[in-house]
Design a protein that fits this description.
transmembrane, rod-shaped, 13 strands, four-stranded parallel β-sheet, single chain, seven-stranded mixed β-sheet, Leucine-rich repeat, LRR (right-handed beta-alpha superhelix), alpha/beta, 6 helices, membrane
């Protein structure tokens, strides 16, 4: 683990350790808590390759846990746990609750394993001095807890390549020391908090539901979808109106018939539009009137009228 951290980070961690020392968080009970923490981790996680096989707690010599695989201590002679780097050990299970006993921990790297479950909302109360939290490339699900904003010393927060859902909590904007933040390749959605807009060391790729800088503007997809829906609705309405008009027009033409007499003509003219009276119509109307007059005088207008000469004119 030596020489793996930049000098600036080493200085920061030294200052943080000094603060912890004066705050009373590093004492004789810390060693016991750290051992309890490591025992819980080994017992709760499955390790098919036996990567934690050298975690033996039968040794009571000073600094014995500092020789464990993936364990980093404050110094080589003291059992004060500073970091756990258990990357790519094929560990499976959920994040152990025994982490709450590793309160002096500044680095927790459990990336590239097979961890499942959710990110504990209490993780920052368990590990208040975390500088680096890397849980990437696991099978974690659920939402990103807003309580991660309580890890006030976080410089690196890496949660990429999991199955996390929901949105990025706005509260993470309060992580003023955050220099690297990655949630790439999850199932997140919603707007990216504005505080990440100008941060070059952020990665939001692979989340189709996320929007906002540095990704596309929020609402573009929705507006495009809305335009398509509106256009389809308008076209559908126009088509329905034209279809209805055509249907009634065709039905109207089929039921129309030319009037057979004067009364039908009047009814037809009143139901539709007024048609001009032609010369033939006037002749038909006049003949009808003459026929009615002859019937009134007792003459059968439907037969031929035969008249004889008066008797005084006969020879």
């Amino acid at each position: 683990m030596k020489g793996s951290c930049p000098s600036s980070l080493k200085i920061f961690r030294f200052v943080l350790l000094t603060r912890m020392l004066f705050a009373g968080h590093v004492s004789s009970t810390v060693t016991e808590d750290d051992i309890k923490c490591l025992k819980g981790i080994k017992n709760s996680l499955n390790e098919p390759d036996g990567k934690l096989s050298n975690w033996s707690f039968n040794n009571n010599s000073a600094g014995f846990i500092c020789n464990f695989a993936g364990v980093e201590c404050w110094t080589e002679r003291e059992d004060r746990l500073l970091g756990l780097e258990l990357r790519d050990m094929k560990l499976s299970g959920q994040l152990p609750q025994s982490l709450q006993y590793c309160q002096s921990l500044q680095t927790l790297d459990l990336s590239a394993n097979r961890l499942s479950g959710t990110v504990p909302a209490q993780i920052c109360s368990w590990l208040p001095y975390l500088v680096t939290l890397d849980l990437s490339s696991n099978d974690l699900s659920g939402s990103i807890p807003s309580e991660l904003s309580n890890c006030a010393y976080l410089n690196n927060l890496v949660l990429s390549n999991n199955r996390l859902t929901g949105s990025i909590p706005e509260q993470l904007s309060g992580l003023l020391r955050l220099k690297r933040f990655s949630v790439a390749n999850n199932d997140l959605k919603g707007a990216i908090p504005l505080s990440f807009e100008n941060n070059s060391k952020v990665d939001f790729a692979g989340n189709s539901g996320l929007c906002g800088p540095p990704l596309g503007k929020c609402g573009n997809l929705s507006r495009k979808s809305l335009e398509i829906i509106i256009a389809a609705g308008v076209c559908g309405a126009v088509f329905s109106i034209l279809s209805g008009f055509g249907y009634f027009w065709c039905c109207g033409r089929k039921t129309k018939s030319y009037p057979q007499n004067k009364e039908d003509m009047i009814s037809y003219a009143g139901a539709t539009t007024v048609q001009p009276i032609t010369k033939e119509d006037k002749i038909i109307e006049k003949l009808s009137e003459i026929q009615q007059d002859l019937s009134t005088d007792g003459i059968n207008g439907g037969s031929i009228w035969h008249a004889g000469l008066p008797k005084f004119l006969k020879a």
